[in-house]
Design a protein that fits this description.
The complex is a heterodimer of chains A (about 110) and B (about 120).
Chain A lengths: L3 E4 L2 E4 L5 E7 L5 E8 L3 E10 L2 E4 L6 E7 L2 E6 L8 E8 L8 E2 L3 E5 L1
Chain B lengths: L2 E5 L2 E5 L4 E8 L6 E6 L5 E7 L5 E3 L5 E5 L4 E6 L8 E9 L6 E4 L3 E6 L1
Parallel strand pairs in B: 2-11
Antiparallel strand pairs in B: 1-3, 3-8, 4-5, 4-9, 6-7, 7-8, 9-10, 9-11
The chains are: A mainly beta (about 110), B mainly beta (about 120).
Chain lengths: ~110, ~120
């Protein structure tokens, strides 16, 4: 257990509304990641963070923004949700320099109607 | 950019039979490789990792994987399948350096274990 929680765990929202997903970790890890998982696509990286206020884009960042104002929280925001953003979202942490594996949270299932 | 190919999106075996899940990678540098397992409605759990030490890597739940550089492969095996092994399995390769390390995942293989 890497001490990662995600909230909410399930959310249904309407097209055009803003949505923020939260990832919280308790072990002070520097590196955090947001992925989306869709059938037939595996996991695809949306954004990642390598420290407080240090973030970068991943493979599928369009339509998403992130913020990290403190070590323990990494927020993913959909400014104006679309049906194509219906997915399961996973947060992950990487323990740090010399470690390349990541540990995942339980996921958030988001449905955009 | 690195990439990972998992051959077979669905694999079905009988309980007690050998499990073999295939993973091939492309990497311009010596890779770090991983296998993850995902049970229904759960997050991903690290099964095992290769980080340039022994080429045969043992993981949890009796799984192991062998790194073969000449074949650019990192196949996952288990000698005898259990019903509890039914899950989706993902192979991943690390890319990037200097703080920008990321994982690139294959599309996954769903394992069914028949009684």
């Amino acid at each position: 257990d890497a001490g990662i929680t995600q909230s909410p765990r399930h959310k249904v929202t309407e097209t055009g509304t803003p949505v923020t997903l939260r990832c919280h970790q308790t072990e002070n890890h520097r590196y955090m990641y947001w992925y989306r998982q869709d059938p037939g696509h595996g996991l695809r990286l949306i954004h990642y963070s390598y420290g407080v206020k240090d973030t970068d884009k991943g493979e599928v960042s369009d339509g998403y923004s992130v913020s990290r104002s403190k070590t323990e929280d990494f927020l993913l925001t959909l400014e104006s949700a679309t049906s194509s953003q219906t997915s399961v979202y996973f947060c992950a942490i990487r323990p740090g320099q010399g470690h390349y594996e990541q540990y995942f949270g339980p996921g958030t299932r988001l449905t955009v109607t | 950019a690195q990439s990972v190919t998992q051959l077979g999106s669905h694999v079905s075996v009988s309980e007690g039979a050998l499990v073999l899940l295939r993973c091939n990678y492309s990497s311009s540098v010596p890779p770090y490789l991983f296998w993850y397992v995902q049970y229904p409605n759960q997050g991903l759990q690290l099964l095992l990792k290769y980080t340039s030490a022994a080429t045969l890597v043992k993981g949890i739940n009796g799984f192991e994987a062998e790194f073969k550089k000449s074949e650019t492969s990192f196949h996952l095996t288990k000698p005898s399948a259990h019903m509890s092994d039914a899950a989706e399995y993902f192979c991943a390769v690390s890319e990037g350096q200097g703080g920008s390390e990321k994982l690139v995942f294959g599309k996954g293989t769903k394992l069914t274990v028949n009684p």
